[in-house]
């Protein structure tokens, strides 16, 4: 199995890159995020690779970093999410915002990815909420509040900000930061005000 490619960029297409490794061109399908971060044609490049072998083809999927590759693997565990759809999700949401969307149960954020409807977005959130483990640690460390976000004043504050028109993941992040700053005993009104300040900043 191919796990990594180190070579030079030979060609960049809309959904893939060809990497020349000692005269052999390897085509790797990539997310928009990875494609945007590639160096120009002729420049050296290194990609992490996920190899998928089927009866009728061998496909390589390339990732600019380990976080994106790990999320690709995790997304593929969800029923109805294939490789192309996983790349579409990673094109719409980088690993950290994706982790935050899962933690915040922000189905709308996931539904922004091409090919992801409301039902599939809900399934992704439900199936991955308890599977993210270490992949969500960075996002959790950034937004984890002193009190649980699923109940009480914090949840009410998130709901209020969503009703004001903010996306759920934005509201979750803002209220989480406000809860860290104010402490676990902060009330709903204080969290809403502090959350609005976070969003304005």
Unreliable residue runs: 137-150
What's the CATH H-level superfamily name of the largest domain?
A: 5' to 3' exonuclease, C-terminal subdomain
Instruction: Work out the strand percent.
Output: 15-25%
Structural class: alpha+beta
Principal-axes shape call: elongated
Largest pleated sheet: 5 strands, mixed, barrel
- Tell me how many strands there are: 5
CATH architecture group name of the largest domain: Orthogonal Bundle
Strand order of the largest sheet: 1-2-3-5-4
| Highest-level CATH class of the largest domain | Mainly Alpha
Question: What string gives the helices and strands in order?
Answer: EEEHEEHHHHHHHHH
- N- and C-termini, Cα separation: 47 Å
Number of domains: 3
- Count of discrete alpha- or pi-helical segments spanning 4 or more residues: 10
- In helices, the fraction of residues equals 40-55%
